Amino acid sequence: MNIGKPGKLFALPQTEAMQTATAGNGSTLPDLLRAPHERGRIALLILLLTLTAAWIDMLSYLSLGRVFASFMTGNLLFIGLGVVQGNSGLLIRALVAVLVFLVGVTFGSFCLGRAPQQQTGSAWHQTFARYLLMEWLLLLVYAIIWRVTSNLSQQAGVQILLLCVAALGMGIQGALVWAFKIPGVVADALTATLITLGQRFAQDLDHPGPESQEWRWSSMFLALLCLVYVASALVVALTSAFMLTPVVPVIIVTIAICALLFPSRQPTRSLPTSSSESNT
After folding, report:
1. Which structural domains are found in the chain, ordered by start?
2. Are the C-beta atoms of 88 and 82 separated by less than 8 Å?
3. What is the pLDDT averaged over residues 129-148?
């Protein structure tokens, strides 16, 4: 299965066997994500993980040395800025965040690649839940270290430790969202989301006509991701001094895990797919 072919973007990048397996019981991940009754669950999962990424990024930026734990484009800019300005603190923090995030993505991709590549829907849910448990544990450690540290603004070593824990968790999360191969969705940043929305607006201008229901809902989903990210950043900025603020990501991922394990048989709205784009 070629990633570039229309309608075949839901694929884990590590394993060709997963993409072509059709015999036996269960389904591959691409088949699972094409099932209408699964798309709502995955949509909720991605919304929650986007909220987690935004929350962690704002906490990191405000309290851990003006760098990000998830938004690596910003950190790469900070590396260059640190070199030019001779700001060793900014340079070290940004470089550490990038390297640890890369480790998290590598480890997460390795774990996903070793998972059974053909499973029933409930087995896939359990696989995702076990995978997210790694991120949950990291976020729990993050919250505990944060709460037991006094005068965090004066503790450079603890700040870097917290940044490492957060970046590792965000890298693991990023590998999972990337594995879904949903156009314009990576959860850790919204540049691709805005590009996809812009492309859709351009297609609508070039080929005006009635929009399909799937097109409308998938575009609304992309817009909702942007709103969730902005709203999360705003809330963190307003409540960064509140004692429970570092614990919120743990709660969010807990909800995500529960949502994966909760049985559901109701049809739901669709996530954006390349097939819906080609209809326009």
Report:
1. 36-278 (1.20.1250)
2. yes
3. 96
